Amino acid sequence: MRSYHNKVVWITGASSGIGEALAREFANQGAILVLAARNVQKLNQIKDTLPNAEVHTVISLNLTDLSNVDALVSSVIDHVGRVDVLVNNGGISQRSLVGETPLEVDRKIMEVNFFGAVGLTKSLLPSLREVKGQIIVISSISGKFGFFLRSAYAASKHALHGFFESLALEEASHGITVTMVCPGKINTEISMSALNAQGETHNEMDHNQETGMPAEVCARQIVRAASKNKPEVLIGNKEIIAVYLKRFVPCIFRRVIAKQKAT
Ligand SMILES: NC(=O)c1ccc[n+]([C@@H]2O[C@H](COP(=O)([O-])OP(=O)(O)OC[C@H]3O[C@@H](n4cnc5c(N)ncnc54)[C@H](OP(=O)(O)O)[C@@H]3O)[C@@H](O)[C@H]2O)c1
Hints:
The protein has a seven-stranded parallel beta sheet with strand order 3-2-1-4-5-6-9, sandwiched between helices. Strands 7-8 form a two-stranded parallel ribbon. It starts with 7 loop residues before the first strand and ends in a 6-residue tail after the last helix. The chain has one domain (8-257): 3-Layer(aba) Sandwich (Rossmann fold), CATH 3.40.50. By secondary structure, the chain is an alpha/beta fold. The model has no long low-confidence stretch (mean pLDDT 97). The longest helix is centred in the middle third of the chain and has 28 residues, at 103-130. It contains ten helices and nine strands. 45% of the residues lie in helices and 15% in strands. α3 packs parallel to α4, α4 (103-130) runs parallel beside α5 (151-171) and α9 (241-248) packs across α10. β2, α2 (40-48) and β3 form a beta-alpha-beta unit. The structure holds NADP nicotinamide-adenine-dinucleotide phosphate. The site of NADP nicotinamide-adenine-dinucleotide phosphate has 31 residues, from α1 and α6.
């Protein structure tokens, strides 16, 4: 079992939802946090409510612009000494049909969810090797099957599996471990910031989000799985059964998934 006491944990998307709940869970376990997102004001508010607030660091990070990521990583390492755990959590969802979605919206979703995680990870890799660190990737059950209104979102999450499963094989000899997390429906504001076909925010709290698992419960299960170095974990309520249906009885899966409500 890994202990996170006095470990430096860098969380992207820490200003809301699962990232915020992960910040609380890791801080409760004695971790030293690097909280990253675009909304620095919100990050500072969260930091101030965490145990040992003074040891945590807030940084501004836009996952669509990693042109200065190496300088950012260097400044964080200079400030906190090392990074033991990177949590690639920041992301946006989608609520639009393939037939109505211009390519730039697909690219934007890939940029945040896939290239954002890839770019930051590559920049941090040398220092993660030094401490035999851990990478936690917040994918989704949409990383396991496609779904209505989620074409680019599901593609970005599938892509994370391909990339980070390859990285896990390559980096095992350097002592780096990877935990892929596939949440189902979690009660966060992700549907609010999801992009529609115009590339604007959906701005609606969807039923699936409102009735989902509390983010705190999800975060607790993520940290437990990561502490056991699990390569992959499914987290959610009955919706995660769909992953098993697809794997073991794909013909039943196709009938069931076609009847689900998209929001
Ligand atoms: N909620 C669910 O049902 C669910 C299910 C499966 C997987 N997930 C995954 O869980 C992760 C967290 O989502 P959530 O549900 O907690 O949603 P959320 O409450 O909307 O949080 C998303 C986080 O991502 C950050 N973010 C968005 N765009 C960004 C950008 N361009 N640069 C940097 N940070 C950015 C946001 O911060 P700023 O706006 O401050 O930048 C925010 O902190 C996502 O990867 C999502 O795909 C969620």
